[in-house]
C-alpha cells in the first residue's frame, strides 16, 4: 500500500509517545505489522483482524495517538526525523 501524508502524521503521533531510544524500534514494529496485514489481505482478500488493511493509518487507528502541536518544537522535529529516516530505510529495503 502506498505511503500517504496521513500515514506519516499518524506514525509521528504514535512514536511521539515513546522516548528517543525507543522510537525507531517502535516505528519498525509498526512497519512489520503493516506488512503482515498487507500479506494477510493479499492472501485472503480480507482485512487483518488486528492490524487492519495494510496501511499505517489503519493499524494506528487502533491506538491512542498523541497530538502534534501546531508549532513544531525540537522534540517533535526529532520524532518526525526518526519516522522519516525509518520510512526511508524501509523503502530502500523494498527496492
Protein architecture, described:
The chain is mainly α. The protein has one domain. The chain is 62% helix and 0% strand. The chain is built from four helices and no strands. It has helices at 5-15, 23-44, 56-60, 74-94. Helix 1 (5-15) crosses helix 4 (74-94) and helix 2 (23-44) packs across helix 4 (74-94). The longest helix is centred in the middle third of the chain and has 22 residues, at 23-44. Pfam families: DUF7742 (PF24891). It comes from Planktotalea frisia. Residues 2-85 form the DUF7742 domain. This is DUF7742 domain-containing protein.
Beta-strand segment tally: 0
Question: What structural category do the secondary elements indicate?
Answer: mainly alpha
Order of helices and strands: HHHH
What's the gyration radius in Å?
13 Å
Distance between the termini: 15 Å
Beta-sheet strand percentage?
A: under 5%
Q: What is the typical, i.e. mean, pLDDT?
A: 92
Number of domains: 1
Can you tell me the overall shape? globular
Share of residues in helices: 55-70%
Main sheet overview: none
Residue ranges: pLDDT <50 for 5 or more in a row?
Answer: none
Instruction: Count helical runs.
Output: 4
Amino acid at each position: 500500500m502506498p505511503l500517504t501524508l496521513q500515514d506519516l502524521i499518524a506514525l509521528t503521533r504514535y512514536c511521539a509517545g515513546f522516548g528517543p531510544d525507543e522510537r525507531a524500534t517502535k516505528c519498525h514494529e509498526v512497519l512489520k505489522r503493516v506488512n503482515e496485514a498487507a500479506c494477510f489481505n493479499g492472501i485472503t482478500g480480507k482485512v487483518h483482524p488486528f492490524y487492519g488493511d495494510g496501511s499505517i493509518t489503519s493499524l494506528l487507528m487502533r491506538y491512542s495517538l498523541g497530538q502534534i502541536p501546531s508549532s513544531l518544537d525540537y522534540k517533535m522535529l526529532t520524532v518526525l526525523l526518526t519516522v522519516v529516516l525509518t520510512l526511508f530505510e524501509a523503502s530502500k529495503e523494498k527496492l
